[in-house]
Design brief:
heterotrimer; A alpha/beta (about 190); B mainly alpha (about 100); C mainly beta (about 90); B: about 100 residues; Cyclin A, domain 1; about 55% helix; C: about 90 residues; mainly beta; SH3 type barrels; five-stranded antiparallel β-sheet; 2 helices
């Protein structure tokens, strides 16, 4: 552990003890909060995407009110920021970033990946998205415009990717298993 | 036009120093420190003691050299400490004493 | 100020952080740049005030699209869409 890491750990420890001593918050609450946060994971988003692929009414709901669509899948959204869903189609491919910090649709997808929070991603996404996508092994078909969405304010954004070909008749479960976290941020494309 | 005003260090969109940097796409597991800082932040917000906006402002105020050296959640706990001191939830003396324990 | 979907706007070329402590959610790379309103996203308390625990009035938030060639010397045919508060937007 580096000196700086050790200092950060010591700072956290000191703050926890002081907050408990002053009755502000205690270890029980921290444990409960962790548990509640850990419940959110990318599978939730994948299930939303799979349902949108097979149910046009749900798709419409997801695109008009992401939070309501999440709640319809029993994902708790009370007190959470508004969720915007970006529809990929044959004209546009969306890529999500937060250049100012790391705003991420955490309530639906869980903790953001390390790369999403990195300086390289935050700097490059809005200036060289095609070069950036190559780092993820993604090269887009010609004629597709990339729309980079910078999460600068109150919304959190996720991508509704296009349903891959060769998946006719697939169950929602089988479809959801195709959808990776990167697909819902626009760095990769799901494939069957 | 914008060259007279270099961006603040957190305002990273298109900034030249990172444009040639590779993205580390490998998975990084969150450890207990990360998850606990995240939980403390969430609780402080839910209890209306410190908003996410105040957290961000505190992170942005970290001097550049330290900002770059701190881990992601290291920046969070630094901002949390600065905010709680500002709000007099505890004093610097109390914090220092607790850290020396 | 209120804007309609499709309307052209210019982002103020303002740098409040050079005048004192500030918390600004308008990324540097769009300040002074021309874009097009995609839609109004809603009204939210101004984060520039929330960040200092000051009373924060609700402000209209817009999704605004910028062509890459507007933003960077090397240009490009893609777009960047940013959430911007109405007090940062002007008519050209």
């Amino acid at each position: 552990m580096s000196v700086l890491e050790a200092e950060s750990e010591a700072l956290l420890g000191a703050i926890r003890r002081l907050l408990a001593a002053k009755g502000v918050l205690n270890e029980g609450e921290i444990a409960q909060q962790r548990q509640s946060t850990d419940r959110a994971e990318p599978g939730q988003g994948a299930r939303m995407v799979a349902r949108a692929w097979t149910d046009p009414d749900y798709r419409a709901l997801m695109l008009s009110d992401g939070a309501k669509a999440a709640e319809a899948m029993n994902i708790p959204m009370r007190g959470m920021p508004p969720l915007g869903v970006l529809e990929n189609n044959d004209q546009a491919h969306h890529l999500v970033v937060c250049t100012l910090c790391s705003c991420y649709p955490k309530a639906v997808l869980g903790y953001p990946p390390y790369w999403y929070k990195s300086s390289a991603y935050r700097a490059r996404a809005v200036r060289d998205p095609r070069g950036l996508l190559l780092e993820f092994g993604t090269s887009l078909p010609e004629g597709l415009t990339i729309r980079v969405v910078d999460s600068s304010a109150d919304f959190r954004w996720m991508v509704l990717p296009r349903r891959p070909s060769g998946t006719d008749g697939w169950s929602a479960e089988r479809l959801a298993a195709l959808v990776r976290p990167g697909d819902m941020l626009g760095v990769t494309l799901p494939n069957a | 036009m914008n060259s007279d005003n270099p961006p603040a260090h957190h305002d990273m969109g298109g900034v030249p120093r990172f444009m040639c940097e590779a993205v580390d796409v490998s998975p990084h597991e969150l450890n207990d420190f990360d998850r606990d800082v995240d939980a403390v932040r969430g609780l402080l917000s839910a209890k209306k003691i410190m908003s996410v906006d105040e957290l961000r402002r505190g992170i942005e105020a970290i001097p550049e050299a330290e900002y770059r050296r701190l881990s992601y959640y290291g920046r969070w706990i630094r901002s949390i400490a600065d905010n709680l001191l500002l709000k007099r939830v505890f004093t610097e003396a109390e914090l220092r004493a607790e850290m020396e324990r | 100020m209120s804007f309609r979907a499709g309307e052209e706007v210019v982002v103020k070329n303002d740098w409040p952080e050079t005048r004192g402590p500030a918390h600004i959610r308008t990324p540097h790379y769009v300040r002074g740049r021309r874009g097009r309103v995609v839609r109004r996203l809603g009204a939210f308390p101004n984060p520039e005030d929330l960040a200092f625990a000051r009373p924060a009035a609700p402000r209209d938030l817009y999704h605004v699209s910028f062509a890459m060639r507007e933003l960077w010397p090397e240009g490009g045919g893609d777009e960047v869409v940013v959430e911007l508060y109405e007090h940062w937007l002007e008519r050209p």
